[in-house]
Amino acid sequence: MTVFRTSLRNLLAHKGRMALSAVAVLLSVAFVSGTLVFTDTMNTTFDKLFAVTASDVTVSPAEADPQDESPDTGRPESFPASVVDEARKAKGVADAQGSVTSMGVTVVDEDDKNVGPTTGAPTIAVNWSPYELRSVRLVEGHEPRGPTDVVVDRGTADKHGLKLGAPLRTISAAGDFTAAVSGIVEFEVTNPGATVVYFDTATAQRRLLGKEGLFTQVMVDAAPGVSDEALKADLAAALGDGYRLQTAAEAADAGREDVAGFLDVMKYAMLGFAGIAFLVGIFLIVNTFSMLVAQRTREIGLLRAIGSSREQINRSVLVEAVLLGLIGSVAGVAAGVGLAVGLMELMSSMGMELSTRDLTVAWTTPVIGLALGVLVTVLAAYVPARRAGKVSPMAALRDAGTPADGRAGRVRGALGLLLTLAGGGALWAATQAEKAGTGSLWLGVGVVLSLLGFVVVGPVLAGGVVRVLGLVVLRVFGPVGRMAERNALRNPRRTGATGAALMIGLALVACLSVVGSSMVASATEELDRSVGADYIVQNQTGAPIVPQAQAAVEKAAGLDHVTEYRPVDVRITDPRGTVSKEWLAATEPTYPQDLRREVASGDLAAAYGPGAMSVGSDYATEHGVKVGDTLTVSFAHGSTAKLRVAAITADVGNVDNGAMYTNVTTARAHLPAERVPASALLLASAKDGQEAAAYESLKTALAPYPQYKVSNQADYKEDLKNQVGQLLNIVYGLLALAIVVAVLGVVNTLALSVVERTREIGLMRAIGLSRRQLRRMIRLESVVIALFGALLGLGLGMGWGTAAQKLLALEGLGVLEIPWPTILTVFAGSAFVGLFAALVPAFRAGRMNVLNAIASD
């Protein structure tokens, strides 16, 4: 109890000095807790949605892929209405309703603006039925009664200002059609951002599936006392093969699996950045407790002199750490809930609706937050606590502060150098790897070892690096600059730890900048080398191009030719008899002009002749295929053909690797008309001298189809750059948390350093140092520490990025580009970070009373 009271008294006595460490714990715990609350809330939202929308048993065509929202044909798989009647007559069935659902549609308003979501959620077109009324309620107008009526959800109506009577055009693979808004519905549970439109059953069948009398699903309800599993078995017996049956639980599990990938990526990415923030926070806490222990050396010596044991002193410091961790963690958990609500509001503003009514705070969230916060704080305080326990009673007779252990410094330098060399060796091994898997392992080892090496060797490097920075940055400020340099060099361990906190965040920034710039440069070079087409037309969501949009492209003025690209699922039997599932790119003879592929053997133009195809070099090597061999190709939903291998393309670069080509006419000859896939993309080239006119003509032709984008090569490169840039900006935003914690570390170090040097500051002021000079000295010290961390971090990050790019070269991204403007901007920005971090400590130092400071002990 005495130890606890002593720890509590010390914590309260130094609460101001502990505040920033508590804030670091708070921020890190808040990020973890907020991530867990946010993802748990999303899971709750989807669980409620799946529970409401799932019938006892759902019957779908066996060919329907639950993972594919936009089939290659653009039309969902369907079966005749007689299946609904058969299901209704099955044993254990209370009711069965036919459903028409399509996610391969685009809905536009009268200005040809897409009213669908921009968050990746689908636009869903369904038929109006009693089943739909389980999840929605009509709040305005009436249900769809004919081909000119459409009902929309409230979220979409509000977002796009749709009122009753507003015309909406629906674009599907079966054609375009226009209907007026006849009603608006609200969901009984939260709709996570999808746009849903409802048509009467006959219109939905005709306009979405191509003809009446078809359904995509049957929603079956069990009779009283019949379990879902029993109903599923009865339906299987009644319907026979050719159908996929799911109970409500199985449908919910499938739905969760669909969204699990997105949620898991987001969850673990955010937790990873929270882990980086925790790592940076460790440096802050270590520095705080190290400086407090050093400042309390005489006090600890007195406690030892009056009978306190080493274990008691050690426990006292660790109890302070526990209390600090608890305070920061409790506040962090509360802040995490607020952060989750903020993320929900942000997602709602972007179109993904998440209701705070579904806010889910599982009991594990505060437990994990508290455990992490306390554990990290105690681990960070362990070494300073051991150092405090080693203070002897004789320290009570000495001034506060102990000199650095020279032998420990030499050991640290040797260990840091060893780790750094080992990390560098692993990074070099990664650059020499012939397989990406092996190289990735070496890269991971190299990143960890080199980071540990720089952290350990940091205090040793501080002396030399700070002196060099002093010559370049500080000496121009005269004596004040030299004093700032000496202050930074006074305790290399402290300077090294403070700089290391900033180093981690900036190393990751530099690494990702190098990787991102190299990816863009590599892709741009590949585009210049491989793509001969003037324009590329594709759906921004990856869905196929509907026939009417393709027809509009083909009619555009100024074009020399348009090449379609249709992916066909096939099973290929090689000459050895091995069967493999592949996809065959059905294109036109102009394709080799639009996408230049290196040919290993044969003639690619011949692959577009009757009964011919090409294969990639990897497939040819693996299956022992050579030019002239005949492959047995079984077309999904079609017939089997014997196709001769006319060419083998070299699988080099990163465009269309592994692709097999044949003529579109060959695919059409072996597929029913309704099973021919829609074009995944279109490539077009302009007539000589008409490039600008053709570009504008294409844009005009596709204006009624806003889901498709026309890109010339300059547009495509810019889009690629923007996509990588947006991804990097998100990552930089998340890394900002770690950098904020690092800045807090600089502030804390300077603040405690000012307290430590109170008497020295008073003496300097007494002999003529002005307040302005004093503040400048502290700001310059902060700047040089920040630049020291930035120099190490940027150098380390560029090394990581260079090694990572060598691995990307194995995947065809062979251009290394160092983004010097970004690197130099970050380095210069670090100086401003240092200035900002020193504002409060410098202000407090300047306000010190000279006499009180001189009298301070």
Automatic annotation (TrEMBL):
Belongs to the ABC-4 integral membrane protein family. It is a multi-pass membrane protein. This is ABC transporter permease. The chain crosses the membrane at residues 268-294, 317-341, 361-383, 411-429, 441-474, 495-515, 730-755, 780-800, 820-843. It comes from the Bacteria. The lineage of its organism: Bacteria, Bacillati, Actinomycetota, Actinomycetes, Kitasatosporales. It comes from Streptomyces omiyaensis. Keywords: Cell membrane, Membrane, Transmembrane, Transmembrane helix. InterPro entries: ABC3_permease_C, MacB_PCD, Macrolide_Exporter_MacB. Residues 59-81 are annotated as: Disordered. The keyword Transcription regulation does not apply. Residues 19-237, 498-694 form the MacB-like periplasmic core domain. Residues 273-393, 734-849 form the ABC3 transporter permease C-terminal domain. It is found in: Cell membrane.
